[in-house]
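Sample intake sheet
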Amino acid sequence: MIENNQKKSKGGARPGAGRKTGSLTKRTRQIAEAVATQGITPLEVMMKVMHQLYEEAGNVQEEELGDKALANEARIKLLNMAATVGRHAAPYVHPRLSAIEHTGKDGAPLQSGVLVVPSAMSVDDWERAAQAKH
C-alpha cells in the first residue's frame, strides 16, 4: 500500500531519457551514407566553389579589363559570391559559439572584469596590482 506522501512515478521527463541532441535518425543516417558513397558531398561542392571564386578574384587583372575600376568591381563581385557560398557552408564546418562550452582554467567558470589603470602607474606597479588580484 502506498502512503499519501509517496507518489507513484507515471511517466514524464526523466534525466537521460530520449534521443540525444544532434543524434541522427535512421533515415538521416541512410541518406548521409548514400551521399558519401556516391563520391562528392554537397559540402564538398560548396567548399570547392568558394575556393575557386576566391582564387579567381585574386587573379583578376586590370590589363584584361582595361580599367582599374572595372577590375575592382569584378573582384568585389567574385569575393561577395565566395562569401555567400562560405556563409552557407559555415554551419557545417564551424560550430556556433553557443554550442561550445566555455570554461576557465581547469574547468572553472570564466572570470571577466575590467582593470582600470591610472596613467601615473608604472609598468611594475601595474603588474604588482594585477598579480594581487589573482
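Comment: The chain has a mean pLDDT of 79. The chain has five helices and no strands.
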